[in-house]
Amino acid sequence: MTSSLLERIDHLVYATNDLDRGIAQIEALLGIRAAIGGRHAAWGTRNALVSLGPRCYLEIIAPDPGHSPASAARPFGLQGLGPSRLVTWVANGSGLEEIRDGAARQGVVLGDVLSGERQRPDGGVLHWTLTDPACVVADGLVPFFIDWGQSPHPSQVAPQGATLVSLRAEHPDADLVRGKLRVLDLALPVGPGPVPALIATIDCPHGKLVLR
Q1: Which of 19, 46, 49, 86 is the 20 to 30 Å CA partner of 119?
Q2: Closest-CA residue to 10 (of 124, 197, 191, 156)
Q3: Which domain holds residue 139?
Q4: pLDDT tens for each residue of 126-167
């Protein structure tokens, strides 16, 4: 994987039915305990984070049992999720409307550009814009985009000690996925596989490990 792709990865999304369980799973794998990030009131979710580099992190996201989504269903298939897994990745970007419109002209639908916010445990509020996570492209192997604007990047305060080494994907129609990624100028390696999958290699206190 080229360094240029690593520079485009804002974060990886690890979805789980229960946040405490997801935190324990990642701690057992990486040897690092994720820190609580906060709640997404509009989505009815909450998360915890582990830094994967200076501007990259792993987001563990789960339903918030105390809050229902403001509209529609929870994102990332959390309504009917089976085992915890990497469900998608997120690319950094600016001028998200231009990215969305350029992709749409070539047949890749990223949806509306939305505003998001999350209150941190210390009371601070993060603000960002993003393309619609509900527009799932190629089973989540094509990312959505995020722009943190003036908010500090979450990786800066997340627990340190892990580094994302590489990210690749598998899909039954790998050529189709590669074509959509080319539209977005994203060089994610995609090979054939029986089911859609994201595979991250992470350097951590337990060594160099694979997370799917």
Answers
A1: 86
A2: 156
A3: 3-160
A4: 999 999 999 999 999 999 999 999 999 999 999 999 999 999
Q: pLDDT tens-digit profile of 84-136?
A: 999 999 999 999 999 999 999 999 999 999 998 888 888 888 999 999 999 99
Strands in 22-120 per DSSP E: 35-40, 45-53, 56-63, 85-92, 113-119
Q: Which helix (H) or strand (E) holds 30?
A: helix 19-30
> Is 175 part of a structural domain of the chain?
no
Give the Cα separation of 93 and 194 in Å (integer).
31
CA of residue 83 relative to chain centroid, distance = 17
Q: How many domains does the chain have?
A: 1
Rounded to two decimals, what is the model's pTM?
0.95
Q: Round to the nearest angstrom and report the end-to-end CA distance of the chain.
A: 17
Beta bridge partners of 146: 92, 130
